Amino acid sequence: MVDILALEVIRQRRTMGIFSHKDLLSRFMRTLNDETYLRDIVITFLLAGRDTVASALTSFVWLLVKHPHVCSSIQLEADTITGQNQDLKSFEQLRELHYLQAAVYESMRLYPPIQFDSKFCQEDDLLPDGTFVKKGTRVTYHPYAMGRIKEIWGEDCLEFKPERWLKNGVFFPENPFKYPVFQAGFRVCLGKEMALLDIKSVALSVVRRFQINFVSAYQIPRFSPGLTATFSGGLPVLVREK
Question: Domain of life, per the record (predicted)?
Answer without folding.
Answer: Eukaryota
